[in-house]
Amino acid sequence: MFQIGEKVVYPMYGAGVVESIEQDFHGTKLEMYYIIQIPKNNLKIRLIANKSEQLGVRAVSNKEEVVKALEYVGAKKIIMPENWSLRYKDNLEKLKTGKLDMVTEVVKNLNEREKRKKLSNIEKKLLNTAKQIVLSEIICSYEIDTEKAEELLANLVLNC
Predict the structure, then answer these.
(1) Is pLDDT of 54 > 70?
(2) Please, what is the end-to-end C-alpha distance for the chain in angstroms?
(3) Closest by CA position to 40, among listed 152, 133, 149
(4) Cβ atoms within 10 A of the Cβ of 96, count?
(5) What is the 3-state secondary structure of the chain?
(6) Taking residues 12-41, what's their average pLDDT?
(7) Is the predicted pLDDT of residue 96 greater than 70, yes or no?
(8) 55 Cβ partners below 8 Å, 6+ apart?
(9) Domain 63-158: what homologous superfamily?
């Protein structure tokens, strides 16, 4: 169970903060709800607390976990299908997990592909979404600004 003020990651949206915990009826059943503020998208999400794990909501990684995930992906060899639809499906599935290493893989894979060949608009959007999710977790974990988070991502993953 998360607490008010706790930093969490919601797959496909990125890092946010549990703003409040409320009770409300879901049909005829009284449920606890998390109200999560996602600052990057200026979004509030309301979800049933006991379904949060099933939805992939998790605590923000600590600094050591962030570095470990970024270094792991940075050193990993890129293997991507050449077929556009298979590549898109593979990257989307990784993104949906909400796991830092998997989402970072999407950033690395699509960034490398973009260096070799122009990305389709859908893949550009996927790259941007994945990058924003990773950056939001780095920002929350390290309590740094976007520019410094981008530097960390570039140095550890994108080899820039």
Answers:
(1) yes
(2) 39
(3) 133
(4) 13
(5) CCCCCCEEEECCCEEEEEEEEEEEEECCEEEEEEEEEEHHHCEEEEEEHHHCCCCCCEECCCHHHHHHHHHHHHHCCCCCCCCHHHHHHHHHHHHHHCCHHHHHHHHHHHHHHHHHCCCCHHHHHHHHHHHHHHHHHHHHHHCCCHHHHHHHHHHHHHCC
(6) 93
(7) yes
(8) 10, 11, 47
(9) CarD-like, C-terminal domain (1.20.58.1290)
pLDDT band at residue 34 using 50, 70 and 90 as cut-offs: very high
Report whether pLDDT(160) > 70: no
Residue 121 predicted with pLDDT over 90: yes
pLDDT of residue 64: 94
Q: Is 7-59 CATH 1.20.140.10?
A: no
Distance separating alpha carbons of residues 86 and 80, to the nearest angstrom: 9
pLDDT at residue 156, as a whole number:
81
Q: How many residues does the chain have?
A: 160
Which whole number is the average pLDDT over 93-111?
Answer: 94
Residue ranges per domain, the chain? 7-59, 63-158
d(Cα 72, Cα 102) in Å, to the nearest integer?
Answer: 10
Can you tell me the distance from the alpha carbon of 93 to that of 117, in angstroms, rounded to the nearest whole number? 22
